[in-house]
Amino acid sequence: MTRRSLSSLFALPAAFAFRARAQSAAADPYTTFDSDGTAHIQRAIPVPKTISPEAQELMVSGKWMPAGGTKERDSFMEKMKAAYPVEVEATTLGGVKVWAVTPKHVAPKRQDRLLICLHGGGFTSDSGSLIESIPIAALTGTKVVSVLYRLAPQFPFPAAVEDSTVVYTAALKIHKPKKVAIYGTSAGAVLVAQTAVQIRKNSQPLPAALGFFSGYVDLARYGDSRWIYGSGGLKDFSAMIEPLKGLGMVPYVADHDRKDPVLSPMYADLKGFPPTLCMTSTRDHCLSGTTDFHRALLRAGVDARLMVFDAMPHAFWYRFDIPESKEALEAQAGFLDQHLG
User: Fold this and answer.
1) Residue 141 CB partners (closer than 8 Å, separation 6+)
2) Of 142, 159, 257, 260, which shows the fewest CB atoms inside 10 Å?
3) How many of the other CB atoms lie within 10 Å of CB of 96?
4) Could you give phi then psi for residue 239, rounded to 5 degrees?
5) What stretch of H or E contains 313?
6) Contact between 202 and 209 (Cβ < 8 Å)
7) Contact between residue 306 and residue 278 where contact means Cβ atoms under 8 Å apart
8) How do 39-41 and 31-33 pair as beta strands?
9) Contact 34/204 with Cβ under 8 angstroms?
10) Surface-to-core class of residue 122, CB atoms within 10 Å of its CB (0-12 exposed, 13-18 middle, 19+ buried)
């Protein structure tokens, strides 16, 4: 056999393989692309067996949290208070309304510490001022002040930042900065980063640590996950509609410059930020935002840690009674507790 015949023989399988790949790609019924690269995707995504049976059941039902103002929600809150014993008092700090959430048993060595909680709710409602503070207060043995900041649309940016900064300033009159940490979930996580930028802008000492639990810090651009998931993961499509109409948080942002470093801390100098725990999950519409912030902190030389849970939806730790949430809450509390000393 000639050299030319041999080369032709070896070329035939390669040609067939190329043709087979081309035919396979052309016949793919699951993904199509627009000329600008926009992907239209159809997939069958099962409930993964890597998560707890309790989480699997919730994913099938799609009912992660009982609706506010219902008997189911009242019962849920009573169970939370039983699991995490605390005293709750409505008061003010620096003239701003807060919940003072105090563990039933506070060790003397922890009385000089304070946690500031900034709740979620898209800046237009209070979805977690107590849900986010009760478990953390009990787990850390530390008093938590949950800030009831002014809400949009009546009070757009920077009202929430002003309120959280006032509370922090008032806290510094009682506590040393190294004994104060700030944390929050969802809009509260966004507000945590915004408040830290404002604190430094005010030439005030930064707190000992930050908890950034499922948020994003670039209000001028969306990452991938904002186009894929709703607050309930794949079952809740309400948050997926918002990006199609333009950038979100309109009541809060109003007509403010979205690249203002306080509004969008991605555009701020993050060097010197406190140690920060970033937490999210793979079906969280804030997955991109949380991981992008983590990377930005690392680029700035910050001690930043990232914890990502498989398959869970946005802010799943609100549902305190499943294994993944217990692990998440213990990780949040452990990080804050460690850095408060």
Assistant:
1) 103, 105, 106, 107, 110, 337
2) 257
3) 19
4) -75, -15
5) strand 304-313
6) no
7) yes
8) antiparallel
9) no
10) middle
* Rounded Cα distance, 191 and 193, in Å: 5
Q: Which two tokens stand for residue 269?
A: 């100098």
Amino acid letter for position 51: I
Does an H or E element contain 292, and which? helix 287-299
Find how far residue 304's CA is from the centre of its chain. 14
Neighbouring CB atoms inside 10 A of 167's CB total 27
Burial 2-20 (b: 16+ CB within 10 A, else e): eeeeeeeeeeeeeeeeeee
Query: Per-residue pLDDT tens for 236-245?
Result: 655 555 555 6
Q: Is the pLDDT confidence value at 246 over 90? A: no
pTM of the entire structure? 0.90
Instruction: Judge: domain 50-340, CATH 3.40.50.1820.
Output: yes
